[in-house]
Specification:
CATH architecture of the largest domain: 2-Layer Sandwich
CATH topology of the largest domain: Nucleotidyltransferase, domain 5
Order of helices and strands: EEEHHEHEHEEEHHHHHHEHEHH
Helix content: 40-55%
Oligomer: single chain
Shape: globular
Distance between the termini: 29 Å
Number of helices: 13
Structural class: alpha/beta
CATH class of the largest domain: Alpha Beta
CATH superfamily of the largest domain: ATPase, nucleotide binding domain
Bound molecules: 5'-O-[(R)-(carboxyoxy)(hydroxy)phosphoryl]adenosine, zinc ion
Radius of gyration: 20 Å
Number of domains: 2
Length: about 350
């Protein structure tokens, strides 16, 4: 039984094939990094154009690597939302056309559910099983959510939202702070690499104070504190120097970046990352304490952060991360999330629309 997954919600065009819901036969991701990095973020119009260019070759490659033909497929799964509408439409339109022409079912997947299923998929591949209910922290460029995941009956996954960000998503905070400091896009992976060169204890940054739901997240205060620090420290010249470095080309090694990043800025970067991690860890810990959960899942692009992985390892619950390649956007997670829907016969018609603000719970 083969499901082709298609993902195009943001700036990655991805296709993957999963056999029998657990064997990853291929996983192709075409990144648009080269198109967007000089703008310091994803430009939606350019993203749609790049998806249009990439979708056919990416799907072909995914089938080729799986050793399959279109006719071997049993279902097509596609991200319906949340995401950029123009980007979603490319994957969705292609998937509809493919399902229609092959006369096979179409399955609509929520991208956030996909991030959670990346972890279930890999645990299944290891022959293990994640004990439910689980607490799932999904942290990426577009969302920062805490859910309880239950599965009262085989394949019937249910999600209860405990808290979410009130302003920026965690990855967005990484990207915005990186941009502010003169680094290219995406900021998360770079801050991750730079953080070990700084001393977080040298810069004091605030944790958020939350009225109301104590399981919500917020990163705007932290971002403002970094901005204030940057202004007070008179960093204009070094920021311009870094910007120049990133406009000229995407540096492939850290050395030239470190050269234009003095120690106090490295300390600021370390402090910023450490504060984001503290923020996430204390909300996740609070959520775990207040709910009957047996395991903790952390997924989404920010789950790739090495500092975060180290700190979260201190939690007492059994902890699950996706591998690095399944932390950031991919289509394996979309095909994986679609498998239970396939078994239930939960198919959609070719009239479904892209849903940029689709919620999971
Ligand atoms: O899941 P993802 O690929 O796309 C969305 O669904 O948004 O996540 C991308 C986000 C970006 O904001 C990126 O900066 C962040 O994940 N990210 C990281 C790391 N790798 C990617 N943030 C911190 N540390 C990383 N190593
Ligand atoms: Zn994502």
């Amino acid at each position: 039984m083969y499901i082709l997954g298609i993902e195009s919600s943001c700036d990655e065009t991805a296709a993957a094939v999963i056999e029998d819901g657990e064997h990853l036969r291929s996983n192709v991701v075409a990144s648009q990094l080269k198109t967007h990095y000089k703008y310091g973020g994803v430009v939606p119009e350019l993203a749609s154009r790049e998806h249009l260019r990439a979708i056919v070759p990416v799907v072909r490659q995914a089938l080729g690597e799986a050793g399959l033909n279109y006719r071997d497929l049993d279902a097509v799964a596609v991200t319906q939302g949340p995401g950029l509408v123009g980007s979603l439409l490319v994957g969705l339109t292609f998937a509809k056309g493919l399902a229609l022409s092959l006369d096979i079912p179409l399955i609509a997947v929520n991208h956030i559910e996909g991030h959670i299923h990346a972890v279930f998929l890999e645990e299944k591949q290891r022959g293990g099983e994640i004990e439910l209910p689980a607490l799932a922290l999904v942290v990426s460029g577009g969302h920062s959510h805490l859910f309880v995941v239950e599965c009262p009956e085989e394949g019937d996954y249910r999600y209860r939202l405990l808290g979410k960000t009130r302003d920026d998503a965690a990855g967005e905070a990484f990207d915005k702070v990186a941009k502010l400091l003169g680094f290219g896009y995406p900021g998360g992976p770079l801050i991750d690499k730079m953080a070990p060169y700084g001393d977080a204890s040298k810069v004091k940054l605030p944790l958020s104070r939350m009225k109301g739901n104590q399981l919500d997240l917020s990163f705007s205060g932290l971002k403002t504190a970094v901005l204030r620090y940057v202004r007070a420290a008179d960093m204009e010249d070094e920021i311009l120097e870094r910007r120049k470095l990133f406009v000229e080309g995407h540096p492939t090694s850290l050395e030239p970046i470190l050269e234009v990043t003095p120690q106090p800025t490295r300390d600021l970067i370390a402090a910023f990352q450490s504060t984001v991690i503290k923020e996430l860890l204390r909300r996740a810990t609070k959520a775990a304490d207040g709910h009957d959960v047996r395991s903790l899942i952390v997924s989404g692009g920010v789950a790739a952060n090495s500092g975060l992985r180290k700190e979260f390892a201190k939690t007492p619950l059994p902890l699950y991360f996706p591998s690095l390649s399944l932390s950031t956007d991919n289509a394996a997670m979309i095909a994986a999330a679609a498998y239970p829907a396939f078994l239930r016969g939960d198919f959609v018609s070719d009239e479904i629309m892209a849903k940029p603000a689709l919620a999971l719970a």
